[in-house]
Amino acid sequence: MPLNLAEGRGRRTRADQIRFFSIAFGSVRECQALFDIADLKDTDTYRLLDSLAASLYKLIKKG
């Protein structure tokens, strides 16, 4: 996730940035799915992932 964010931020066009932010968003959701499977939804880390997903969503929709 962090590398996708960094790479997206370094892209010149908004379309390229959005592509990498979208990849990072998918990775966050994959991590959350693992937490769901492990029954760890009620953790600070899960809430942090949820917050990160919300921030990424805003970056993507801002496009």
What can you see in these coordinates?
The chain has helices at residues 2-9, 14-37, 44-62. By secondary structure, the chain is mainly α. The protein has one domain. 14% of the residues are buried.
What attributes does this structure have?
single chain, 63 residues, mainly alpha
Please write out the topology.
Elements: H1 2-9, H2 14-37, H3 44-62
Please outline what is shown here.
This protein is an all-alpha fold and 63 residues long. The protein is built from three helices and no strands.
Task: Give the C-alpha Rg.
Answer: 12 Å
Distance between the termini: 19 Å
In percent, how much strand structure appears in the residues?
under 5%
What is the overall shape? elongated
Class from secondary-structure proportions: mainly alpha
Low-confidence stretches: none
Helix content: over 70%
How would a crystallographer describe the biggest sheet?
Answer: none
Indicate how many domains the architecture comprises: 1
E-strand count: 0
Helix-strand pattern, N to C?
Answer: HHH
Overall pLDDT: 94
Annotation field: number of helices: 3
